[in-house]
Amino acid sequence: MPTQGTGPTSDTRFEYELLTDRVPNEVVIRGDPSSCPYIEGKMAQFPVRLPTRPLFPQELDTRLEQGDRRQGDVFYTPECEDCTACIPIRLNVRDFRPNKTHRRILRQGDRLLRVAAGPIHFDQARVDLYDKHLYGRGLAHGKANPSTQPDYERFVASSFIHSIEIRLYLDDALVGVAITDCGATALSAHYTYYDPTPPHLSLGTYAILQQMRLALKLGMQCLYLGLLVEQSVHMQYKARFHPNERRIQGRWTRFE
């Protein structure tokens, strides 16, 4: 997801357009290319689209099916001229087969962690955990200052659709939060952050497996994992869930 550290400068140019072929209509904002947050040395183009009203669950399904991602109150789809590395990826809930590693992570997490789900909250404890995740996993991308509660609300907690958070606790301490968007037939793993200091717990993978459990419980069809960027070490984990489907040249293709 585009990061906080790549904001516009005074020289950045923007173009605005109203898209009336979408329900609801959207305002699209296009700016100059900026440094790619996924592949070092690349430039990226991330037009963002702001819906003119909150979305119904079925409308979120449509955008997920089209490969859109959400950040705060906008959607985006990479439109880079010389690169197609960003590939939307999803899991068919009923076809997914956890491998040996997934089963081990589930057993260990079920034994050591407490899981809760509910509305999205934002407080200083979550902001601190979010920053611990960013800096501990090398995801800060040159971000010099700690996040504030408004930063957290804008980039993580703000949502114009129905979203929840799945909380992971270790010995009553909050160690992970998975912000999850809820459509009519699909869930979307919007953003997950966690304490990276107990690596043996594989909290990121465990959070995805918990989202799969919730999707099954709710009778959903898919869990969207966002963008797969195989050149990024931080994104490769998504390809380890099998089978998966990837949107390539406008069509969803199954990978075993």
Report the count of strand segments.
15
CATH superfamily of the largest domain: Gcn5-related N-acetyltransferase (GNAT)
- Structural class by secondary-structure content: alpha+beta
Shape verdict: globular
Give a description of the structure:
This protein has five helices and 15 strands. The protein folds into two domains: 14-84, no CATH class; 90-255, 3-Layer(aba) Sandwich (Aminopeptidase). Strand 12 (186-194), helix 5 and strand 13 (222-228) form a beta-alpha-beta unit. It has helices spanning 57-65, 100-112, 124-136, 149-157, 203-217; strands spanning 14-19, 26-31, 34-35, 43-44, 48-51, 69-71, 74-76, 87-92, 113-119, 163-170, 173-182, 186-194, 222-228, 244-248, 251-255. It is globular, with a radius of gyration of 18 Å. The chain has 256 residues and is an alpha+beta fold. The model is unreliable at 1-10 (pLDDT under 50). The two termini are 26 Å apart.
Provide the descriptors you would attach to this structure in a database record:
single chain, alpha+beta, Aminopeptidase, 5-stranded antiparallel sheet, 5 helices, 15 strands, globular
Q: What is this entry, summarized?
A:
It contains five helices and 15 strands. By secondary structure, it is α+β, with helices and mostly antiparallel strands.
Annotate the secondary structure layout.
Blueprint (H helix, E strand, L loop, with lengths): L13 E6 L6 E6 L2 E2 L7 E2 L3 E4 L5 H9 L3 E3 L2 E3 L10 E6 L7 H13 E7 L4 H13 L12 H9 L5 E8 L2 E10 L3 E9 L8 H15 L4 E7 L15 E5 L2 E5 L1
Parallel strand pairs: 12-13
Antiparallel strand pairs: 1-2, 2-5, 3-4, 5-7, 6-7, 8-13, 8-14, 9-10, 10-11, 11-12, 14-15
